[in-house]
Amino acid sequence: MKETMTKMIPAMVLTPIFTYLGTLGFPMILLFTVIVCDYVSGLTAAWTTKSLSSRVGILGIVKKVSYLLLVAVGVIIDLTLQSGLADVLPSLFGEDCHPVALLVIIWLVVNECLSILENLTEIGIPMPGFLSRIVAKLKKTLEADAKEDADESDQ
Fold it and tell me: What is the dihedral of CA 79, 106, 6, 22, to 10 degrees?
């Protein structure tokens, strides 16, 4: 009975999510998971460095919730593209396709993973050299892209 319940409860929770979100179901669960991990690791890092602040924590929650708006914008763009390219997109990606939203989710997951690694470093967990180099390179690339995007929007 206990084994059946441990299988049934996640199925009852996840089935409506996957039914509603379709192909974005697993990426959204992954995004939610890394968001929670980043928040917890950020709280832990702030606690260990004695810089815990409720204001910073609340701003972090607002930022994480705002990620959902970014994904929603990606879905809106996908729906707009699907209405204009109704014959092309399904043949390229399948009926339930959301390539822009999926790219937004992937970008957010990578960004959250970088933040988790930074938090772990701040806590004092030793980082393997190769992982540190990857994080440094990804962070530099993301910052350069963000600066380039900001420069373009100013023009």
Answer: 20
